Amino acid sequence: MNNENEQHEEKKLSTLSLIGSLFAGAFGVQTNANRERDFKHGKFHHFIIGGILFAILFVLAVIGIVKLVMSAAAA
Q: What is the pLDDT of residue 4?
């Protein structure tokens, strides 16, 4: 019984692995082994929520950088 709990815990995808997979997937450099691991051990809704948050943060970062450059160019 205890061995089953340990195996279940080993199969869960860690938060750091999830974030790494999101970044790698967003930039198109995900390895096949990591992709297979994500499909086996990750939860679909974690990737959907993480992808949406990543997209929002990426757009906000681009907007911030453009505003910073534009204000520096005007000065």
A: 58
